[in-house]
Amino acid sequence: MWNISEAYIDGKFVPVQGTEVIQIINPATEAVIGTATLANRDDARLAIHAARRAQRTFARTCKAERIEMLRQLQAAVLSSAGQIRDSAIEEYGGVFARTQWVSQYASQCFANAAQTLEDYPLIRTVGTAQVVMEPVGVSALIAPWNSVAGTICSKLASAIAAGCTSVIKPSELSPLQSRVIAQALHSAGLPDGIFNMLSGRGQDVGDELSTHPDIARISFTGSTATGKLIARAGLQGMKRVSLALSGKSASIVLDDADLSTTIALAMNAAFMNNGQACIAGTRLLVPRTRLDEVIGAVQAFAATLHVGDPKDPDTAMGPLASLAQYQRVQHYIQRGLAQGARLIVGGEGRPAGLEQGYFARPTVFANVSQDMFIAREEIFGPVLSIMTYDSEEQAIQIANGTEYGLYAYVFSSDLQRASHIASRLEAGTVMINRINPELLAPFGGVKQSGIGREFGVAGLESFLEAKTIVTAL
Ligand code: NAD
């Protein structure tokens, strides 16, 4: 049984002052595997204070020192990759291959940031001015429950590269994964206070971070609704705020696409991370003339999807992360049926043979129209909506016909044609014939999917502020 009751503040694990105790539940078995005591505002203030104190010295570190720290973090996280993976399986229900990848990616974030910083000019001459890129200051890094290690390490890597100390607030729904990551980061042996981490609720710890005058920057990943609260709170203190938010991404299959490869990619785009991915391609747009063919291929692919024990390397989809998530997905499946969408794969309830655990059936609807809830709202579960189009123009209109704009996918055997369509899609990222991201390129959304970019140079610059120094000639 896990018993987590400490926060990581000023280089040490210290008992939290908060008193709310929550259960940690394994979503694959519904067994209680531990408890966590959540941090409160007082803990948050201590963490902010520690980060502020450390900021003075950290801001004066040179490139080489920060690169060395990033390398230390990379090595520390890499050597804990097994524990990071196992905690994501146990607490979140992530499947083996995905959690393995994320645990490696978490360490790679630090290597990427080191490389980016190495190549980045922190001082440059512009006309008669010298422009110095300075750390923006103490940063709050606020993360969701669906991608814990990756989100924390990606944000922290950019913050450290820029010379910003931070207070990390993972979701209150991921205390076990957060604890394992904090231990891994601690083992890197960085000076006290450079990063601090505490699990607490959004309305107190999150709000404290969004409003505290000593926080200069907020890097937030989570839902659009929460992002707006944070942006409003942050504006009062003129905090630099970036928001990586919800999505309802389209996968456009062009009439020349090779379905033998496309459908597997599109289905993986829809169901990645057990369907709980901001970048999931949850609307599959297909030419009306190829609908029957696509439905056949989707059903054939779905029949091969093994849902079950996330520890088993053959499992393609594990449970949803919580009972609330399970109920949310059921609700959307019911709404799809009630609005007349045609169920072609899955449906309500658990998959056959899985009586225990928050397992949903991977579900695909056809005959989905743009006005249906399942086509408009982010479900955050394994539910795919197939929509048909009659022309390229209409495909683009449907893809853009959402308030969100995080990702889009285009599948075609004609790359020029696909690129032309990509240029017209309202999305932060467009993937053509692939679903694995480029981790050094900017990542973020347009419209209601967010403000600002992470990763690579864009991520580094989001933690920097330009200071212009002009001297008399
Ligand atoms: P959420 O918005 O409920 O919570 C995210 C974080 O914000 C948590 O740490 C939470 O405690 C905190 N929070 C909640 N209220 C707060 C407040 N008032 N002030 C400060 N912090 C507060 O999101 P979630 O349910 O944890 O995550 C799922 C959502 O995140 C989905 O919408 C998904 O699309 C989105 N997401 C986006 C990305 C991206 O990169 N764009 C990545 C992963 C998840």
**Spatial ordering of strands, largest sheet:** 15-16-17-14-13-18-19
Structural class: alpha/beta
Mean pLDDT: 98
The fraction of residues assigned to DSSP E strands is: 15-25%
Estimate the global geometry from the Cα principal axes.
Answer: globular
Q: Sheet with the most strands?
A: 7 strands, mixed
Which residue ranges are poorly predicted, with pLDDT under 50 across at least 5 consecutive positions? none
Number of helices: 15
Bound molecules: nicotinamide-adenine-dinucleotide
Radius of gyration: 23 Å
As a percent range, the share of helical residues equals 40-55%
Distance between the termini: 69 Å
Number of beta-strand segments: 21
Structural overview:
The chain has 473 residues and is an alpha/beta fold. Helices cover 41% and strands 21% of the residues. The chain contains 15 helices and 21 strands. Strands 15-16-17-14-13-18-19 form a seven-stranded mixed beta sheet, with helices on both faces. A six-stranded mixed beta sheet has the order 10-9-8-11-12-20, sandwiched between helices. The protein has a three-stranded mixed beta sheet with strand order 1-5-4, with helices on one face. Helix 8 links the parallel strand 11 and strand 12. Helix 3 (81-92) runs antiparallel to helix 6. The protein is globular. The model has no long low-confidence stretch (mean pLDDT 98). Bound molecules: nicotinamide-adenine-dinucleotide (NAD). Nicotinamide-adenine-dinucleotide binds next to helix 7 and helix 8.
